Amino acid sequence: MLDIYFKELMHSLPLFFKGMGITALVSGISLVAGTLLGVMCGILRAVKRFGLSKIMGFYADYMRGIPFLVHIFIIYFILPETGIQLSPFPAAAIALTVYAGAYISEIVAAGILSIPRGQREAATAYGLNAFQRMRYVIFPQAVRVILPPLVGEYVLLVKDSSIVSVIGLTDITRVGWLTVQRIPEGLIVFGLVGILYFVICYPLIHLSHYLEEKISYETH
């Protein structure tokens, strides 16, 4: 019986690869957009001027304090009641972007605040304005602190993308649920689902370890 299930699963591989492509695409878009959003919000959070830090802090705390499943439900099921109707893919990409941006903003803010105050004072003494201090002195140094946890967050983003299957997006997880209805051997089906997620995440995991080792070596 297992042989029959395995053969049927092999026939379903094109669907799994298509789902893998959807997962990689929605994760990639959200990764880029979430990074841009997170860097901007993280800088504003670290600057601590004009109340922006508190606003960004509330955004980060709110998004991190509510399950991602709730966010995706709000965007896909609740927004249509206000006249904003989104198909599964853009709804998933927006939800992942806003969710990832909150975590990334905290990573960026922590990296910026880790730079010694003396660096800011020295930059000010050279006549640099606030933007120049951040652009040429603070942020380049903070990047070394930010990169390892940032790449780790990318891995979490890819795994969190599995939740978007609940709104009908045919990602890897959704294909797995559809397949297990025909092949009632969940271990085989979702074993393959796990392998495909691992294939996507492993390069990011390896990159995170590499950056951590490189930065640790440079600091010693």
Q: What report would you give on this structure?
A:
- The protein has 220 residues and is an all-alpha fold.
- Helices cover 81% and strands 0% of the residues.
- The chain has one domain (23-219): MetI-like fold (Orthogonal Bundle), CATH 1.10.3720.
- It has nine helices and no strands.
- The longest helix has 35 residues, at 13-47.
- The radius of gyration is 21 Å and the shape is elongated.
- The termini are far apart.
- 31% of the residues are buried.
- The model has no long low-confidence stretch (mean pLDDT 88).
CATH fold name: MetI-like fold
**Shape, please?**
elongated
Number of domains: 1
Strand content bin: under 5%
Major sheet: size, sense and barrel closure?
none
The tally of strands reads 0
CATH class: Mainly Alpha
Instruction: Quickly count the helices.
Output: 9
Mean model confidence by pLDDT: 88
- What Rg is obtained from the alpha carbons, in whole angstroms? 21 Å
CATH architecture assignment name: Orthogonal Bundle
Distance between the termini: 57 Å
Structural class: mainly alpha
User: What order do the helices and strands follow?
Assistant: HHHHHHHHH
Instruction: Look at the structure and name the CATH superfamily.
Output: MetI-like
| Unreliable parts | none
Q: How helix-rich are the residues, as a percent range? A: over 70%
